[in-house]
Amino acid sequence: MKRICSLETEYGILFPTNKRSVSEKIASFVKGSLRLFHSPISSNYALLESIRDDSSMNILTFETAREKVRAYWLNGVQAYIDNTRHLELALPECSNPYDVAVYDAAATQILDEIARRNGGLVIKSSIDSWGATRGCHENYFLLKDSLHRGREWLPQYVNLYMTPFLVSRILFAGAGCLTDKLEISQRARTTQNFFPSSPTSGCIYSSKDDERFSSNGIRLHVVLGDANMADYATFLKVGTAWIVTTMIEHGFVSSSFVRTDCINLLHGISNEADAVMKNGSAINSAIGLNIQKAYLSLANDFFAKHSDLEDSVTRCVLREWEFTLDCLERNPEALIGKVDWITKYLLLDAFAKSEKKPLTDESVKLAASEYHLVGANGLYAEAVRAGFCSSFVRGEDVKIAMQTPPSDTRAALRTRIMEEIKEKCTLLIANWHLLRYNVPNTDRWGFQTIEYDLHDPLMTKCSPRITDSTGV
Asked: Residue 7 and residue 223: Cα distance in Å, rounded?
């Protein structure tokens, strides 16, 4: 089935202060420092300027008064500084979760290449060693007509029927957070509300006004989520939510899934990493696992009744979902390389034992930080080379995604138009749903304003609207 989904990920950028090669171990120039992820705001802007000016990436760019620099890559990815001054990459609209995992890998690889050419390193983590959080937000498209209740009812509807799924999903979507112990999720401890009570409050959903996303649908913006190094986790995280939103849209999730203790359950699950790995008393995680099994069972029933929506991607999600839940219950170690928090737990535990250090030792915390270092020097990359981890997405798909946008969404149309007009005219507006630019009249004074209304995220064709201005 084709349903729009996507990710927006905030990255940390680290620039060494000395002249040593960035290919050296990161520990060598941050020795003794636990503030590994501290990324000065000036570094974010400096790298974004480098992204804008890097001609080797064939980047489409423009400037507006609202956002000084926003870079559109030819593969549909947008790079910009967000409202909290983080460097953020927004993936193009994808029609399925496999494409999301592919474009996430492609965007991260492009960013890493640009950063290294400019002497920097990229951190893909949702928390830094100062305790500040970065976002990895998910977008899902819901048709207004299918909700039957109107746009204003969506927050209450989703909060009732999707929140239990999201808080228990950290069992396979968490990236792991090392404090005085290893916690399953990086964002769980800062999440206190369903919707934001303030601009900086930790929440599960964003209450943004997203009419601009589509004229016939609504963007569900999920804030509760960690940035994953394992592409398997990215695929399963997005894929399961992709299916659950589909069931919610069809009114298939019943009131039996509603819970009133979701925030407490989220915190409880996140604190039980050790119990899950050692088959201990993981009460909250057992509850979470049963919740996931119930949603999986419902999903199997749903596709049995809606076979027209089933395809190879949905079957893959269902198969891997069942496999992962079975491993979590019987043999969590089988998920090394697939689930980040488990991979991190096993690697750090082995490292601490080999060094005869406790998990709270600074050297272990530094190793935990290095897990999220993108590129060849990161701990996750070392685990891949050692054979502990393997890529879920195909390398050839990532190479294609580094150069071209998804062909079955408006990202391809938007990119094609921007490529055609690059350096030929003044681009006035460029965002998800609208392109507007001016071209001079060839036979008289004035100019023409050409506008493309990209109202449908799945559209691949669009005729322009042309307005003529005679000028003076």
From this structure: 10
Kindly report the pTM of this predicted structure. Answer: 0.88
CATH of the domain at 346: 3.30.590
The verdict on 240 and 311 lying in the same domain is yes
Integer angstrom CA distances of residue 410 from 18, 129, 268, 415 = 44, 38, 41, 8
**Number of domains, the chain:** 2
Strand order in the sheet with 434-440: 426-430, 434-440, 447-453, 465-469
* End residue of a domain, out of 378, 401, 424: 401
Same domain, 374 and 445: no
Q: Which of 315, 334, 312 is nearest to 325 (CA)?
A: 334
Mean pLDDT of 372-381: 88
- Shortest CA distance to 223 belongs to which of 368, 349, 126, 335? 126
| Residue 109 one-letter amino acid | Q
Tokens of 238: 């997005």
Identify the CA nearest to 128 among candidates 366, 360, 369, 363: 369
140, 333, 330, 347: which is closest to 225 by C-alpha? 140
Q: What is the per-residue pLDDT for 155?
A: 59
Mean pLDDT of 411-435: 82
Two tokens, residue 462: 């669009």
- The whole-angstrom separation of Cα 43 and Cα 118 is 11
SS3 category, 414: helix
CA dist 124 and 374 (Å) reads: 7
How many other CB atoms sit within 10 Å of the CB of residue 345? 24
Which of 401, 422, 450 is a domain's end point? 401
Strand, helix or coil for residue 142: strand
Q: Is there a contact between 213 and 457 (Cβ–Cβ < 8 Å)?
A: yes
| Residue 407 identity | S
CA-based Rg of the chain, rounded to a whole angstrom? 23
* Residue, of 244 and 78, whose pLDDT is higher: 244
Q: Mark whether 397 and 419 lie in a shared domain.
A: no
User: Sign of the CA dihedral 125, 222, 215, 104?
Assistant: positive
- What's the longest Cα–Cα distance across the chain? 80
* 291 plus 427 within the same structural domain: no
Q: Does residue 248 contact residue 154 with C-beta atoms inside 8 Å?
A: no
The whole domain housing 442 covers 410-469
CA-nearest of 13, 234, 226 to 112 is 13
422 and 294 inside one domain: no
Q: Which pair of tokens denotes residue 48? A: 């974004």
Whole-angstrom Cα distance, residue 232 to residue 117?
Answer: 28
Label residue 21 by pLDDT band (50, 70, 90): very low
Q: How far apart are CA 239 and CA 393, in angstroms?
A: 14
pLDDT tens sequence across 202-214: 788 875 655 556 6
Strand 78-81 to 70-72 pairing: antiparallel
